[in-house]
Design brief:
This protein is of the alpha+beta class. The protein contains 13 helices and 20 strands. The chain is about 40% helix and about 25% strand. The two termini are about 90 Å apart.
C-alpha cells in the first residue's frame, strides 16, 4: 500500500488517484505501480475491496488490450458507466473534455502508460450528458504480458451541472434591474445565513456597498417590524424550498423600505451549504411611482375639467352669438324685402323690363336670406336643447315622414322602402329632424329619375348598428365629400337643386349629440348613401 509521507496532502480522500489505483491493484493481487517519490509500499491485509468501494465515489473498471471496456463495478451508487461495457471510450460521439480529440489518449494507451484525472464527456441512452474523470494503470498477467488497463472513474456530471447553473444564474442576476443578493448558509448554524454577493440594485436599495452587505449579520438587514424574517429565510434555505415573504429592509441610516422577498434556492448536492438567490421587489418604490402617476392623472383630470368648462363656455357664447346675429339679421332683411315689394306693387308701371328683373333678383335674394337665417336659428337651438331620450321606432317615424312628404308634393313618384322594426333610444324630435333631412335630400336629388328609389335600413347590432338612407339619384363626387356637412356648403347649384346648405350640418350635430357619427358614400350618376350610428362612443 502506498502511503503519503507526513505533511503531504492527498486531496479529499487522503490519497492521490495514483495511490488509489495502486491500492486497488494490490488488493486484486495484480502488479502495483512503482512507488512515487516520497512514498513507501507497506502491506495492508485488513482492508477489503468492498470496504474501499463503500468509502469512495469512484467505480472500478477494466479494459482489454484493445481498449474495449470489459468490466465496471458499482461504487456507493449504480454507475452509469456500466452502460458502456462492450464498447470503447470514444464510441457514440464521446469526446475528451479539454482536447476534443482522442489521439493523445490513444497514444498513451499504446505506450501502456498510466494516466490520471482524464476527463471525457458522453451521453447516456436517455440523452443526459455525463462527465467522467478516469485514472488507470496497465494490467499484466502472471507471465508479465500486457492484458489491458484497470482504473477508477468518477461521475462529475452533478458537480459540473451545479457549477454551470451557478455561473448562468450569476450572469443573469448581475444584469437584473431589480435588487438581488446571493445568500449562503453560515458555517455556524446559530448565525443563520450571510450575503456572499449583491448586484448594484441591491446595494442601492440598502444604501450600502457590497462589502458592507457581506459583513452584516442577516438579522440586521431587516427593520424592527420584520422580526422572524431572517429565521424564515434561513429555514427555507436549509430546506431548499422556494418561499415568498413580506418584510421591511433596513437602510444604512435607519430608513425602512417595504419589500417582497422571493427565495430561489440553487440546485446542488446536499453535502454543500445551502445557497440561494434572494430577489427583492421594492414595494415602496412601486407605491411612490403609483402615487406620482396618481398625482399626474389628477392634474391631467383637473386640467381637462378646466378645459372642458372653457370649451363649454365658448360653445355657449358661440351659440348665443349665432342666435343673436341670426335674430338681428331678420329685421333689416324684412325691411329690404318690404320696400322691394312696395316698389314692385306701386311703381311697376314706371319700371322697364330691366328694372323689373333687378327688383325680382332683390326679392329672391331677400327670401333666400330669410331661409338661411331661419336655418341658422334652428341650428343654434339644436345645440342648446337638452336631449329627452326615450325608445323610438325609427321605422314608424320614417314611414310618417314619407307620408307627409308625399302629401306636401303629390307629384312625387319615388318608391320609398323602410326596413321594419328599427328601434333605438334617443330624442324623438331630433331624430325626426335627422330622418326628414336625409329623406328630403334623397327625394330631391333623385327627383329627375323616372324610377326613383329611396331606402332606409340598418345592419349590425347594439352600438355597432349602422343606419343607412340610400337613393339612386344624381350622386356626387367623393373628392368634395369633406364639404358635405359644413354650414351653407353645397355641391350643386341652386338652379339644379334648391336648398340652404344647412340640412346635413344639422344632421351631423344631432348625430354627434347622440354619441354617433355620420358619413357618406357616392358616385356621380349612381346615387348616394348616407350612414350614421347612435351611441357608438358610449358602447366603446
Amino acid at each position: 500500500m502506498v502511503v503519503p509521507q507526513t505533511g503531504q496532502g492527498a486531496g479529499r480522500t487522503g490519497l492521490s488517484m495514483r495511490s488509489l489505483a495502486t491500492r486497488l491493484l494490490a488488493l486484486l493481487g495484480r502488479s502495483s505501480l512503482p512507488a512515487e517519490p516520497g512514498h513507501q509500499v507497506v502491506p495492508d491485509a485488513g482492508i477489503e475491496l468492498q470496504t474501499f468501494r463503500r468509502l469512495s465515489r469512484d467505480v472500478y473498471w477494466e479494459q482489454d488490450e484493445s481498449g474495449l471496456i470489459t468490466r465496471v463495478d458499482d461504487g456507493p451508487h449504480p454507475s452509469a458507466l456500466k452502460l458502456r461495457i462492450g464498447g470503447f471510450l470514444w464510441d457514440d460521439g464521446a469526446l475528451p473534455l479539454e482536447t476534443g480529440d482522442w489521439q493523445e489518449h490513444r497514444d498513451r494507451l499504446n505506450r501502456q502508460a498510466p494516466f490520471t484525472d482524464f476527463a471525457w464527456v458522453w451521453n447516456d441512452p436517455s440523452g443526459r450528458t455525463r462527465v467522467s474523470i478516469d485514472s488507470g494503470v496497465p494490467r499484466h498477467d502472471a507471465q508479465g504480458r500486457f492484458v489491458g488497463y484497470a482504473g477508477v472513474s468518477r461521475d462529475a456530471g452533478i458537480d459540473t451541472a451545479a457549477d454551470r447553473a451557478r455561473r448562468l444564474a450569476t450572469a443573469a442576476l448581475l444584469a437584473a434591474s431589480e435588487p438581488v443578493v446571493w445568500i449562503e448558509a453560515d458555517s455556524k448554524p446559530t448565525n443563520g445565513w450571510r450575503i456572499i454577493w449583491a448586484n448594484a440594485a441591491a446595494c442601492q436599495l440598502f444604501d450600502r456597498t457590497e462589502r458592507e452587505l457581506r459583513e452584516l449579520p442577516c438579522k440586521t438587514l431587516f427593520g424592527p417590524d420584520s422580526g422572524g424574517t431572517a429565521e424564515s429565510v434561513g429555514q427555507a434555505l436549509l430546506a431548499r424550498r422556494d418561499t415568498r415573504l413580506q418584510a421591511e429592509v433596513a437602510r444604512k441610516y435607519g430608513e425602512c423600505r417595504a419589500v417582497e422577498l422571493r427565495l430561489e434556492p440553487l440546485p446542488g448536492t446536499g453535502s454543500l451549504r445551502g445557497c440561494a438567490a434572494l430577489l427583492i421587489h421594492d414595494r415602496s418604490a412601486e407605491q411612490e411611482r403609483l402615487q406620482q402617476g396618481s398625482r399626474a392623472i389628477e392634474q391631467l383630470r383637473s386640467s381637462m375639467q378646466e378645459r372642458t368648462v372653457e370649451l363649454e363656455a365658448a360653445a355657449r357664447e358661440l351659440e348665443s352669438f349665432t342666435y343673436s346675429v341670426s335674430h338681428d339679421l331678420r329685421a333689416p332683411i324684412r325691411v329690404i324685402e318690404g320696400f322691394a315689394r312696395i316698389l314692385d306693387e306701386d311703381y311697376a308701371d314706371r319700371l322697364d323690363r330691366v328694372g323689373h328683373d333687378h327688383l325680382q333678383r332683390i326679392l329672391t335674394s331677400a327670401s333666400r336670406m330669410t331661409e338661411m337665417v331661419d336655418a341658422l336659428l334652428g341650428l343654434a337651438r339644436l345645440s342648446g336643447q337638452p336631449l329627452a331620450t326615450e325608445p323610438v321606432d325609427l321605422s314608424r317615424l320614417a314611414d310618417l315622414i314619407a307620408e307627409q312628404l308625399r302629401a306636401n308634393d303629390p307629384s312625387l313618384n319615388a318608391d320609398i322602402i323602410v326596413q321594419p322594426g328599427i328601434q333605438v333610444e334617443g330624442d324623438r324630435t331630433l331624430l325626426r329632424i335627422v330622418l326628414e333631412n336625409l329623406m328630403s335630400n334623397a327625394l330631391k336629388f333623385s327627383s329627375k329619375k323616372p324610377d326613383a328609389r329611396i331606402e332606409f335600413a340598418c345592419s349590425g347590432a347594439g352600438p355597432a348598428t349602422v343606419y343607412c338612407m340610400s337613393d339612386n339619384g344624381d350622386g356626387f363626387d367623393m373628392r368634395f365629400a369633406d364639404r358635405l356637412f359644413g354650414v351653407f356648403q353645397r355641391l350643386h347649384t341652386d338652379a339644379e337643386f334648391k336648398g340652404t346648405g344647412v340640412g346635413l350640418a344639422t344632421v351631423q350635430r344631432i348625430v354627434r349629440r347622440h354619441g354617433g357619427r355620420v358619413w357618406a358614400d357616392s358616385e356621380p350618376g349612381k346615387g348616394a348613401r348616407f350612414y350614421f350610428t347612435l351611441w357608438e362612443k358610449a358602447g366603446r
